[in-house]
Amino acid sequence: MRGRNDIRPSEITPEAVWQSRRQWLRQAAAGSLALGLPWGARAEEAGDPQGPALAGTRNPEFSVEDPPNSWRDITTYNNFYEFGTGKADPSENADGMRLEPWQVRIDGAVRRPLTLDLDDLLRLAPIEERVYRLRCVEAWSMVVPWMGYSLSHLLKRVEPTGDARYVVFTTDLQPEAMPGVRAGILDWPYTEGLRMDEAMHPLALLTFGVYGRRLPPQNGAPLRVVVPWKYGFKSAKSLVHIRLQAEEPVSSWMRAAPREYGFYANVNPAVPHPRWSQATERRIGTSLFAPLVPTQPFNGYGEQVAGLYQGMDLRRNF
Amino acid sequence: MARAAWPLRLSKGLVFVACLYPVGRWLWLGTHGELSANPPEFLIRSSGIWALVALWLTLCATPLRRLLDWPGAIRYRRMLGLYAFFYTVLHVLAWGWWDRGGNWGAMWRDVWQRDFILIGTLAVLCLVPLAATSTQGWVRRLGRNWRRLHTLVYPAAVLSVLHFYLMRAGKNDFAEPHAYALALAALLGLRLWWRARSARRDGQSAR
């Protein structure tokens, strides 16, 4: 029989009361933010990770030490133009996206073209958690605990031929769920590309989750690539097609503004965007009085990836 | 000069407080963690929008006076204009501090690197002498030239909306700049129409 002391706190405190306490804590934490204090307290209270769980073990070799951004920052400050160009648009508009069933076609210069269900893809290799820096071409940055495995696992499975020198990623196009595609801006569907050796680099992550949860739609559900040494737009979201080919592809952004966006888009403080400097970045989630952070070549992953570009003029191949 | 009557002082006080609404809103949003994931960007953009709103309201004073046959409208113009300058200064400070890291060199380079920063700078340069000569003393000292000098508000407004267009060009998202441009076209169009009409009348009476 249950004794008097077995009553759990949740049985005593009415929900409205603890909700209001949480609200108070949130406001107190946010108040500290307004005073210029770090946002750590806020990250824990406001917006715990949501959605289906996705298990994975931390890979320390591929994780940075910087404190990760909050779930709230990561899931409410997004560029996903299919859902609108405002940073909050994707989190507000992406709910209607159809995520099931989901299949990805992998074909082109391969011996074994495949069409895989999401479940097949999730089982293809062990899921790891990797804390990567993310540097947007718009000069802001975050730190994100992604869940996934190296894209190379998938690419090896389809047995690339000698002609496979580039990989093209295509984002799904769901006009009925994507208000942004009606506005023009880019040629839809969104496409991006990598050179084969870039795609085979272990840092190139086929990503299914964030913070131990499956990716929310605004972050590229159900799967995307994450290429941490390149500007964020190279990391295509919500993939339905991966094609290997001999020719260098023309990505959506290269077609829209060839003077501003090149094929490589490696993070490089020495090469300004034609319309702004790339020397520094604003780290999202730091206090209002935090200084801008100097941007690092290859977003700090130079030791691992600079060798891929030996002998190349990175000013011309921007 | 005699003190203004109390209804006018009261209404001016109310307008003064109402114009501080954006500041109050920022403080409220800041203390509730609602300044988005990127508060510096939010504040830079918000201060710019409110600078536009205040400048457009300033430009409403003359048309309101004529359309409503309400001479008193003009009494709020200086305060509104100074608020436009106030939010412009906050906008520039926010850009310099948060976007350029408080680095003078980075600010200077930005003026020449980004078209819309250059255009915005020109708009600010148009507004500075207007704010500086807004006192009664300067109105007296400059005489007829005061009116001439203060026509700089028109290039300031046109450059401001151009600055907004160029800033949005990267995203091809022009809904808001269109709205401000349309309002400005109406405000300036009315003036041109009145001017043309009175010129025609003058021409007829001279004959």
Question: Secondary-structure map with pairings?
Answer:
The complex is a heterodimer of chains A (318) and B (207).
Chain A: H1 9-12, H2 15-34, H3 40-45, E1 57-58, H4 71-76, H5 89-93, E2 103-108, E3 114-117, H6 118-123, E4 128-135, E5 140-150, H7 151-157, E6 166-171, E7 191-195, H8 196-199, E8 205-210, E9 213-214, E10 224-226, E11 239-245, H9 252-256, E12 280-283, E13 293-294, H10 302-305
Parallel strand pairs in A: 1-4, 2-11, 5-12
Antiparallel strand pairs in A: 2-3, 4-5, 5-8, 6-7, 6-11, 8-9, 8-10, 12-13
Chain B: H1 6-18, H2 21-31, H3 39-67, H4 77-99, H5 104-113, H6 115-132, H7 136-142, H8 144-149, H9 153-168, H10 175-206
Supply the key terms.
heterodimer; A: 318 residues; alpha+beta; Sulfite Oxidase, Chain A, domain 2; eight-stranded mixed sheet; five-stranded mixed sheet; 13 strands; globular; B: 207 residues; mainly alpha; 10 helices; 80% helix
> What is the CATH class name of chain A?
Alpha Beta
Fill in the CATH topology of chain A.
Sulfite Oxidase, Chain A, domain 2
Oligomeric state of shown chains: heterodimer
CATH architectural label of chain A: Alpha-Beta Complex
Question: What overall form of chain A do the CA principal axes indicate?
Answer: globular
- Beta-strand percent range of chain B: under 5%
The overall pLDDT average of chain A reads 88
User: How many strand elements of chain B?
Assistant: 0
Main sheet of chain A, how many strands, which sense, barrel? 8 strands, mixed
**Rg estimate of chain A, integer Å:** 21 Å
Distance between the termini of chain A: 71 Å
Unreliable stretches of chain A (pLDDT < 50, length at least 5) are 1-22, 27-45
* Distance between the first and last residues' Cα of chain B: 42 Å
- The 3D shape of chain B can be described as globular
Number of domains of chain B: 1
- Mean of all residue-level pLDDT scores of chain B: 92
Strand content of chain A: 15-25%
